[in-house]
Automatic annotation (TrEMBL):
Major localization class: membrane
Record-linked PANTHER family: INNER MEMBRANE PROTEIN YPHA-RELATED, OXIDOREDUCTASE CATD-RELATED
Keyword set, alphabetical order: Cell membrane, Membrane, Transmembrane, Transmembrane helix
The organism's place on the tree of life at top rank: Bacteria
Pfam families the record matches: DoxX
Location of the protein in the cell: Cell membrane
Membrane topology type: Multi-pass membrane protein
Keyword Membrane: yes
Native organism: Nitrosospira briensis
InterPro entries: DoxX, DoxX-like_oxidoreductase
Protein name: Putative oxidoreductase
Amino acid sequence: MGKLFRNDNLGKLILRVTVGVLILFHGVHKILNPGSLDFISKQLSGINLPHALAYGVYVGEVIAPLMIIFGIFSRLGGLLIFGNMVFALVLAHRSELFTLTGTGGWALELQGFYLFSGLAVLFLGSGRIAIKPD
């Protein structure tokens, strides 16, 4: 294929914008529905962690996605999303870890997408199409 389809920087931008925008919707939902933090707080207290950690969801689902969408410290943003999803899996989805859906898909496909996309951004960085290329 031609050079048009061999553009690593464009691929990184597409990955960043895709994962960033999609997880940002979850963060905006939590901002508009602050009661959703109650669920997270209860889950945290169930494993003896402080309730204040629930506010970390805003870091992982609002600040980090904006960081990677705009390409500002994208690697850190990817790490924050990855960490956010580790917490989500431990707190809310442990019982579904080895579960399949009725159509044969993994029950945690969405969470897995965010987890591994955050990890990909961590290792790939922002590329050149970014406010602060790395």
